[in-house]
Amino acid sequence: MPNIQSARKRLKQSLVRRDRNRSTKRAIHTECKKVLVAVKDGNVEQAEAELRTVAKRVDKAAAKKVIHRNAAARVKSRLSAKVKKLKGK
Predict the structure, then answer these.
(1) Burial category of 80 from C-beta neighbours within 10 Å (exposed 0-12, middle 13-18, buried 19 and up)
(2) Kindly report the CA angle at 57 between 51 and 58, in degrees rounded to 5?
(3) Angle of helix 44-63 versus helix 69-88 axis, rounded to 10
(4) Helix, strand, coil content of the chain in percent (nearest 5)
(5) Structurally, how many domains does the chain consist of?
(6) What is the pTM of this model?
């Protein structure tokens, strides 16, 4: 445990941020799975709707630096490619 007051504060802040970041990442992961399930089931409308929510959530996480902006772009690109492939069938 830190002894200096500023170090104690930093520890508390980092714990709060870690919990917040974890919940955001977990939510993104859950939303991505919803898109993949919709694609697997062949439901184009649901997949597109879920893709929009994923893109919004990923962009917000990247803006807050929870995830890297390139990682956000990669997630959106991969999911949109799967949805686009589904629409082509």
Answers:
(1) middle
(2) 85
(3) 170
(4) 85, 0, 15
(5) 1
(6) 0.86
CATH number for 28: 1.20.58.110
Confidence of residue 11 (pLDDT cuts 50, 70, 90): very high
Domain that holds residue 26: 5-88
Residue type, 39: V
pLDDT for residue 89 is more than 90: no
Burial of residue 86 (CB within 10 Å: 0-12, 13-18, 19+) is: middle
The position carrying tokens 């917000």 is 60
